[in-house]
Structures are given as C-alpha cells and as structure tokens.
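Standup notes
- DV: blocked on the single-chain target, sequence here:
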Amino acid sequence: MDLMRILRSLEEFLYELVGWLVFYPRTFWRVLRHPAAIARYTELELQQEPERQFTETISPVLMLILSVVIAHGLEMLSRVPSLETDTPVSQLLLGSDQALLLTRCVVFCAFALVAALSILQQQGKAITRETLRSPFSVQAFLVSPFVLMLSVGILVARVEHGWSQAAGGVLIAIGCLWYLWARTCAYRALVDIGWWSALTRVSAAFLVTSAVAVALLQLLLP
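- DV (later): unblocked, structure below
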C-alpha cells in the first residue's frame, strides 16, 4: 500500500515536471510579448474555481520561483565565484544555496508586492488578502522575465573578460527597460490611466524598490 502511494506520488511529480518543461517557456514567451494581455488573463483566471485556474500556463508565483531556480542554476553552471559572506547576517541569508534561493525569491517578491500595492492605491481599493491576490499575481508573472534578464546580466558582468562588464551592463539595461515597459502596459490594462502617468508611477515604485534592495545588499556585503 505504501509502495503504491509512493509510485502515485512519483507519477504526479513526473507529470508536473514535464508540464513545467512545456508550459514554462510558453508562459515566459506570452509574458515577454504581451504583458497587458497577461494582466487581463490573470484577472480572468482568478475568477475561476481554483482547480480550473491557469490550465494553459504556469501559476504566477510558481513561475517566479522557477525563474529564480533557473537563474540560480545558470550561476552554478557558470562557476563564477560566489558572493563573500563575512558577516553573520550575510551568512544566514546568502551562505547556502537554499538560503540564497529563498532570499532571491523574497527580494523579487518585494518588487511584485510594491507594484501590486501601487495598483491597489490607484484603484482606490482597500488592501486585503482578496484584493491583493490579483495585482500581485500579475506582477509575479511580469517579474519572472526580469529575474532571468537581470541575473544573466549580472552573471556576464562578473565573468573575468574585457568585454564582459559592458555586455552585462547592456543586458541589465535591457532587462530594466523591458520591465518598466511591461509594468506600464499592465498598469494601463488594470487602471484607467494615461501612458505618462502610468510610466511615472511605475518608475517611481521601481526606483524605490531597487534602492532599498541595493542598500540592503551593501549592508550584507560590506
């Protein structure tokens, strides 16, 4: 009986894994090309029953987690020297693969959270678990390509070659510009607002979140 339960669990896991291989690149491409459409799609999906949600894509938060895992895997394969963790806090947050994955997930979730709160403020809605779910899910989708573009750019910049820093800087810039564009498109899809107003609000929220993340990183890695 226990063996059959283990086999069924293994079967479900393998099927889910195969599903990720199919639906992750498909979802990634949809987010990359049509951020406004993915925002509207997310709102519609969240109105369905839980078992019927996101049947054509990967769920938003899982998409974000998988993007962080892929970025971490690329870093491990590249064999770029790991970050130095001299302080107890940095050792706790960055000292192991598990801690680093969790810290990265939290940091990028912060980008999604700040963006979601900005949308709720503009919509004039109270912040509750239910009202936060939809904009946060949208932003979890949008931040996923940004995770990979930013991580690959930083990875290339850390490679010890003459061209690597310039190439890494270009990749980081492209990632940031795409992310601002995607968030602006999604903002306008969810809120009745003009392009410049949306871009201003998105840019302000992005800069504040980035500044806090950089400041925390500097504190952890003196």
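- Follow-up: The helical segments are 2-33, 35-45, 60-78, 88-94, 97-123, 129-158, 164-190, 195-220.
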